[in-house]
Amino acid sequence: MRKPLALFIGLRFVRARKKNQLVSFVSLISMLGIALGVLALIAVLSVINASTGTMREETLKAVPHAAVTLPDDLLDWREAADSLAAAPGVIAVAPFLESEAWLQFDGRGEFVNVRGVTPETEKQILQSPDSQLQAMLDFLAETPDGIILGTRLAGQLGLYPGMQMSVTPLNSLLQRRTEDARSFQMVGVADFGFYDNDAMALVNLPVASQLL
User: Fold this and answer.
1) What is the value of pTM for the model shown?
2) For the chain, what are the domain ranges?
3) Contact, 203 vs 115, CB < 8 A?
């Protein structure tokens, strides 16, 4: 039976005669090294493949599949939302208003992305439903001046549910209009995912439209 060329060459060096034992030893060590390298590569790829789904879910936990920006002069966003909801393949639509602001508490502050949402529709677009976040959205709907912070952001500022803080729009801060600051009551913390836990704050949409 004719052997493949690669197998023939490999066996030729592994089965070297006594006078060529050094060649046989080097060949054996090389084969073991290649085998260990392939084993390590398979193990690393397995870990990466297993964690890809988790990383994707954590990264996009509070991010919608798509965001549609309306012109400033288009005031009736409800009509646009109804049109989008009727499009094929669209599961849910939720309005939001987002802008940067300065959040301050007890002499400390952080720049955050303040997102105004309607709690009822926001729960429908969550990619990874989180019971705690859904409960916080229910509390937000019952508290007009309520605010939900990411877990890391609340920890950095030492904030707990029930505490009061002030939020100043970025434009007002740059123009030193401190009178535009508004007080909010923290209704709870939520896990917004890997990237948004230290920079996200949710408020009610009507309040955000007045503030931002």
Assistant:
1) 0.70
2) 5-59, 77-211
3) yes
